[in-house]
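Q: For a teaching session next week I want to show students how multiple molecules come together into a single three-dimensional assembly. I've collected the sequence lines for a complex. Could you give me the predicted structure tokens for the whole thing so I can convert them for display?
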Amino acid sequence: MGTENPGHPSFPVRPLPAPFAAVPPTGTPFSSSDPLVGHEASSFRPTPPTPPQATGPFVSSGPTVASDGSGFKATAPPRFNDQSVSFTPTTYIPSTGGPFYRFPTSQFPSTTQGPPARAPGPPQVQPFASQVSSPPVSFHQQPSSVPMGSPPQRANFAPPTVNAPQSLSDSSFSGPRPSLQPSFTPVDSSYSSARTTLQPPLPGYVNTQSNAVSQVPTMPSSFPSYPGSYVPPPPTITSSFPAHQGGLAPPMSTATPPGMISQHPGLPGGIMQGLAEEFRSLSFGSIPGSIEPGVDLKALPRPLEGDVEPNSFAEMYPLNCHSRYLRLTTTTIPNSSSLVSRWHLPLGAVVCPLAEAPSGEEVPIVNFASTGIIRCRRCRTYVNPYVTFTDAGRKWRCNICSLLNDVPSDYFAHLDATGRRIDLDQRPELTKGSVEFVAPTEYMVRPPMPPLYFFLIDVSISAIRSGMLEVVAETIKSCLDDLPGFPRTQIGFITYDSTIHFYNMKSSLTQPQMMVVSDLDDIFVPLPDDLLVNLSESRSVVGAFLDSLPSMFQDNVNVESAFGPALKAAFMVMNRLGGKLLIFQNTLPSLGVGRLRLRGDDVRVYGTDKEHALRIPEDPFYKQMAADLTKFHIAVNVYAFSDKYTDIASLGTLAKYTGGQVYYYPNFQSSLHGAKLMHELSRDLTRETAWEAVMRIRCGKGIRFTSYHGNFMLRSTDLLALPAVDCDKAYAMQLSLEETLLSTQTVYFQVALLYTASSGERRIRVHTLAAPVVADLSEMYRQADTGAIVSLVSRLAIEKTLSHKLEDARNALQQRIVKALKEYRNLHAVQHRLGARMIYPESLKYLTLYGLALCKSTPLRGGYADAPLDERCAAGYTMMALPVKSLLKLLYPSLIRVDDFLLKRSGDVKEFLDNIKRLPLAAESLDSRGLYIYDDGFRFVLWFGRMLPPDVAMNLLGQDFAAELSKVTLTERDNEMSRKLSKILEGLRRTDLSYYQLCHLVRQGEQPREGFFLLANLVEDQIGVSSGYVDWILQIHRQVQQNP
Amino acid sequence: MAVAWSLLFWLLMFFMNFAFIVSSFYQLLCLLDLEGDHMNPFEASAHINFWVMKEFLLHGVFCILLLVTGHWLIFLVAVPLASYHALLYMKRQHLVDVTEVFRNLKGEKNLRLFKLGFYVVFFVIVVFNLAIATFEAVLHE
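A: Of course. Below is the structure for the complete assembly, covering every listed component.
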């Protein structure tokens, strides 16, 4: 951002710290200052001097000069930015805070100039604002950071309502006010999500207070700080204000209802009130009273709204890339390694470099053409919004290594009075956290490769019998015209059983020529040039081939599978170009190199030290092959279909190290599963893909990424080789501190993905993100991102199953959660009598449940009998690549009741989908008179209650309604109910296209199907030896309390 | 005669030991190059794996020679490493895993550093014995 520029030069390192410091002050000042602080605008100014005192407790950074005022302003600013308001600079100036946020806008100038001239307090603040960030963080959290411990959180929330009025009206905006109000409303809406959680606390407040007496005094003081960010529209404010003083309750009541409802959709109004209080206190971070047997199951936190991203962070740092691309496990980076060691959860990031952006938010493409891409000379960082321009625009300072670089003459632009480049609005790379650069020839080792799809298809008897071959041929044919990269796309086929069949598809032929190679020990490729053809030239030959493929082998009775030799042959054909290799495998490879044996059905191995060996590739051939494939930019997607053991552990290795994925269709039958295969295969073929990619994530001095987790291969210590990447792949990494103490106040991360687009253009996608450094553990907890943590933890757990027993992996996971909560408890145990309450930060309220869900997920659950080995391994490979949102949905699927809606005469499906009520995943939620959809993102299970009105089943299933449901497929029938249901399913599918959810029908009491499809996946219930939700919480709680 | 044999034996030991040192040093160098991004994992692991089995076998021969020639004390010192090699081989972990080199880099490096130290100690012993043997041979004549 240009805005920063001004700030930076003047405050080299310092500025950052100062801003940060500002944060802490907000918290502290409050406590020191009277509750009244909030009220008076005047208080702000005076405060500046005071700040120093405040800082002490909070932050280590001494310099913190920030005043209350600064804190306030900070809060307010975010909104301002959003709606660059009409306020005139003059109005701002009076208010210390205002200018900061606005920095992007023209007003900034005033601030920039200001710093030097101004009193000590303000200047520091400004840099902060420009840096962007920390202040906001502090707002929400600050309250919590206050010694209060669990109460803090409430405090935070409550303040907003109260403060808001004050900050707005009194302090900075007296003049501008009218204009402001309108602008604010939008803000509210954006905050709404945050709000819902926040508000509940208020009502509960009273109760809680009784518990913790110490808190009471602090509370008032904390109010002032919050307000900024959440200010409600003025009208409410006034009313709330008085109330606030007396007792928080009144203001809250107004606010609460919406929040509550969203949280507990199912609850009737009356109960809600009571429950609401419980819930609030829960969300505060403490389970009220004792967590003894009487735990209210309904009051336990559940992620019924799916993945909630911490959006306060995004608002704090508007220049950051969107969280869909990059998420940190905690958005504050600890400043010392001792702090890291106390943060028992993983510290790292989850990157999904090509995540699908909604239309209108696409990543802008920048072509520097003649200039060449602007990068830091030393650390090779790409130019980004956080770099600062100095020396009248002739130099720029790298935000990651702070080296001063020259600005190439072609890229030069003058700076305006505020130090921003005058061409800022035409430079997306300086205003957006995510950009895509068009890479010049220096970034190519060879001409950009064409998109290349190669199919390796098993045509042994089982492939024919299951109908797989037919579906695959048909699907490929239907996708031929939609393959990306026309007219350069290349395509080729090999089929194999006990021999290998090559197909010459030269464009001059009318029919493909088949060549059979039966020497498996010494593979050679006949006609190496014509096996891989340009699709647009050979379109008709390829079409003819796919038409005849099923019939060619329909009488094949060969049961062998020469998978290894066929793979080698495919490799030999492809290695000149690279590309994507799709393998369709139906049986266990039985011939030639890479043959595997049946090893998965030995019960005795489970529970022993050799158990893990079943989950790693048996033959080193697969790892070696995977490495070779990666080296030549070949990505492998494995489609496996067998009803018997196929050793997915070995086959999946090919996908794991080549950036591919594993699709597993156990017991595939085209009549039942054809639709799923068809959708997923066509998605695989037609989605936008990045080819021959490498990815690197850079970060500031003092920290380093140490381990990477996901489907890829490391090409050097920090370079991920990704032969093919698409929007459905995410990668996780952990970081560690290299220095014992970080001296910077902000850490920057930059993900760069260099790839070849299907169009043949070489591009670099760059995501940049800034995060504040903190010295306070509670701040880290407050800013934790459950989604990213769960994603990382699950990858670590799955990796652990590759070298340890399942039980060890589960125990390690549980220990991690226990340690984290224990540390949190210790943090607050000093100031509060916690008693037997279980406390956890608001941000991690779902962590325990996700932990439980993870222990019950397919890769980790139970023992031998609980999941077939192949399914376990396939799920493991899938979860290693899954983006955060899909993973969370898989761990805690949605359960929706639909019979009421279907029976309703009217009812708009769209409206129903918009207001879906997700139910807790427990058998209790299932009413035998109901019809439920269970949706984990990979499949639907439609559960028919035993007492479901027969006409519903009749309408949906027609004549089959009494038949055994395993043989029935759901098709749309000619009645309103059936149409509605299929619209609902369609709508649910559209929310995530990466996998196709096949609908499985299950009737209540129909075992073992019901158990297999649904009951085993109700994570809150006790299944076998695994504990239910309440037990789990109690178990964790007990462990947390042990030897504190 | 015996003296000449002894000299020959220690000379052989000397060259074997020299080979061990060269091999471990080379492997260590490959790992360092890999870490410093001067070599890609494919090459590095191929180079390392090329030596691994040869080193194991040679070390086995080395031990057996010590055993049959009656140098039991030195044999006892050498045998733990040989059995460790055998163990690795049986667990199929003797080769560097190209797909996970970076994850195991630290361990592999430490192992080779340790082995290098071990070989150097042996080298000293062997050189010492070689010197004695030479001295005796010279005296004998």
